[in-house]
Design a protein that fits this description.
CATH superfamily of the largest domain: Outer membrane efflux proteins (OEP)
CATH topology of the largest domain: Outer membrane efflux proteins (OEP)
CATH class of the largest domain: Mainly Alpha
Distance between the termini: 51 Å
Structural class: alpha+beta
Largest sheet: 4 strands, antiparallel
Length: about 450
């Protein structure tokens, strides 16, 4: 069926001399495997090439470009022609030789082109489409900003999940060694069976934690792979083993929420897109009001049935205006709809500005909190947790501390390590969210 329709289209286009370019929709090619180890820069580059939302935004831009071409086009002239025959008429009865019973007629209409140029409807349609195209292009840039933030978040969560897996595995290994030591001491009669059971239970709990951490890592990898356009059942790749050091960018060291909000209003592409959509809605109101003026068409016609003075219809040319009379409807609905759309765009723009302020405030507060927690961890907490574990372990091996004290010190150290990894992840997540909230340009 498709081949028949295509053949018919080719035939008519060839008959009219119109070039035909046919491109059937095709399934996107299977993307190549995700590189391993996957750095953040590589992930962002792949997102720009393969991200589904970004490809959808590109299609929306092309659609808006088509709308602009349609709005800027001039209407094609309409040509009509026909012929006929007058019955019960004998042209041989005419004295002159120009009589004929065959009628020929034709007409040419500008389809309202001249009136449209004078009234300015085409110009307004082009303004509406141009502003809509600007909005689509800005929305595409904002989609890139949003997707970058999502990829950065997913990448950080994957790195943190990998670090938590390694921390859990190291803790499980240390707990297994402790359990083996306690079991040996139980068999030697130095400790009770209850101590051996406690040590084994602690080991099994950490084995559970390892399984849970591995599950979280697999989920994080799947989320990241989806953002990168991967369609495999089980993406196989590794990420960097650790996040970079938490060093505040220069532009944030002395920044205030007011400064960041001003940057966001100057740099956010979605706010610029809202302004473009508002301009398109304004032009749409003007177009709707201008469309109340009827479209006037200029029609030129020619007809003849014979050529002499005695012909039924000597060669005759005429020029006429075709005007629809707005007797029953004057376009009030279109005007009201355009004004409602303008109100909606104004509200959407105001809402977006309020949301922008909330985004900046919340992300800046989150980043400050993460900065404080990381600083405290690196300056005091980590060292003290490590020191406490070493001391209790030393005391236990010499009989000066109980097994419960040792297990508690081990749990505290493991939870402290995990909390630190999470705090570092929170620091980077909040930083990327703050950069996305302020509309910062991507790092080169």
């Amino acid at each position: 069926m498709r081949s028949i329709a295509g053949a018919i289209a080719v035939f008519f286009c060839a008959l009219l001399g119109i070039p035909l370019h046919v491109a059937w929709a095709q399934e996107p090619n299977e993307p190549p495997p995700i590189p391993s180890p996957l750095s953040l820069d590589a992930a962002l580059q792949r997102m720009e090439e393969r991200g589904f939302d970004l490809l959808t935004a590109d299609a929306a831009v092309r659609s808006a470009e088509g709308d602009k071409t349609i709005a800027s086009a001039f209407p094609n002239p309409a040509v009509s022609g026909g012929g006929g025959h007058t019955f019960h008429y004998d042209p041989n009865q005419c004295v002159s030789s120009g009589c004929s019973a065959t009628l020929w007629e034709g007409s040419l209409s500008d389809q309202g082109l001249l009136a449209d140029l004078v009234i300015g409807k085409r110009r307004l349609r082009a303004q509406v489409a141009e502003a809509a195209l600007d909005a689509a292009r800005l929305e595409r840039k904002d989609a890139l900003r949003t997707l970058r933030a999502l990829v950065e978040q997913a990448w950080v969560e994957t790195v943190v999940a990998g670090a938590l897996v390694r921390t859990a595995e190291q803790a499980a290994q240390a707990s297994a060694q402790t359990s083996d030591l306690v079991t040996l001491r139980w068999h030697a009669g130095d400790v009770s069976e209850a101590d051996a059971a406690r040590a084994e239970t602690a080991k099994l709990e950490l084995d559970q934690a390892v399984d849970a951490a591995r599950q979280q890592l697999a989920q994080s990898k799947a989320s990241l792979a989806f953002l990168l356009g991967d369609r495999s059942a089980k993406p196989v790749f590794e990420v960097d083993p650790a996040l970079p050091a938490c060093v505040a960018p220069p532009e944030l060291r002395d920044a205030t929420p007011e400064d960041l909000l001003a940057r966001a209003r100057a740099q956010r592409q979605d706010l610029a897109a809202a302004d473009a959509a508002l301009a398109s809605a304004n032009a749409g109101v003007a177009l709707a009001e201008r469309s109340r003026i009827p479209d006037i068409a200029v029609v030129g016609s020619y007809s003849q049935e014979g050529s002499g003075n005695e012909a039924l219809q000597p060669p005759t040319a005429s020029l006429a205006l075709q005007l629809p009379i707005p007797l029953f409807y004057q376009g009030a609905g279109e005007v009201e709809k355009a004004r409602a759309n303008l109100d909606a765009q104004r509200i959407a723009r105001a809402r977006l500005d309020a949301q922008l302020a909330a985004d900046v405030a919340t992300s800046f507060a989150a980043w400050q909190s993460a900065q404080s927690r990381v600083t405290r961890m690196e300056s005091v907490t980590l060292a003290r947790a490590r020191r406490a574990l070493d001391l209790v372990d030393y005391q236990y091996r010499r009989g000066a501390a109980s097994l419960l004290e040792l297990l508690d010190a081990q749990r505290t150290f493991v939870s402290t390590q995990a909390e630190y990894q999470q705090n570092v992840g929170d620091w980077w997540l909040s930083l990327y969210q703050l950069e996305a909230a302020t509309g910062k340009e991507p790092r080169s």
